[in-house]
Every structure is written in structure tokens, then in C-alpha cells.
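Handout, section B. The chain below has 152 residues.
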Amino acid sequence: TKAMGANSEKKEATPKKLNTYKTMGIEAKQLSDSVVQNYLENNRIVNALGEKYGFNSLFFLPPHLSLGNKRLTAEETEMKREEEEADPALSELFTTVYHRLESESLKHRNLHSMANVFDDSDGLMWIDEGHATPVGNQLIARRILDIIAARS
């Protein structure tokens, strides 16, 4: 009331429309192609630096609640539903980009998908859609160590 003045009428809040690639008229395929191309170019640059300066690089596509084939707990199912409803366009773009990068990982020796790291786990692995529990982080770390050991 102070900010609006004592005699001002209260106004109803107008719901804000999300400004997404879809509302801007950008095609999902065009944007996902661009994101994947940029990611792979960064991969190429790091590989070139590794060759020049004598180091090996590894890229890991992190796991995400909406990916993989884990049987979700009730909590995880609710998290996934909330994420998809919050911004369907972002959810669609994320999934498209991730799947494209996963298919590209077959062509790039140092690019590894972690999407299926929790597939054999029944318990709660997610704090939210992108952050794993301590047990989940242990599984991720084990997978990374296995990949490193296989390359040695």
C-alpha cells in the first residue's frame, strides 16, 4: 500500500507469459542442432588443446531425472511431473539435445552419457530433477571411475 500510495486501488497481478524459444518462433530442431553443434565444437577445442599440451579429456553428460530407465519412486515421479509442467518447451528441448548428444557420443571416444547410471536403482536417487542424493553421487562417481579405468 505504501509503494502504491494510500489511495491507490490494488491491481490484480497479470500472469507472466514465459519467453521461450517457442514463443519467439524458433524451431526446436534448429535450436537443438545449434546447441549440439556448440557442445561438440567445445569438445573438439578441448581435444585439440589436449593434443597440444599433453592431456586427455573426458566429457560426461550428467544424468537427469527425465532421462534413463530408472523405475521412479513416488517422490521422483512428482518431481518429474512438476518439471515438465513448469516449462514444457524447456523440457522438450533438453530431452532432444541430450538424446542427440548421446547418439553423438558413439562417435566421440571421450564423450560419455550418464543418463542410465540409475537404471538398476530402486531407491530415491534425486533431490530434484538435476541433483542426485549422496547415494546417487556415489553411483555417478563409480561409473566415472570405471570409464577412467577402462581407458587406462
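Note. The CA atoms of residues 71 and 122 lie 6 Å apart. Compare this with the example in section A.
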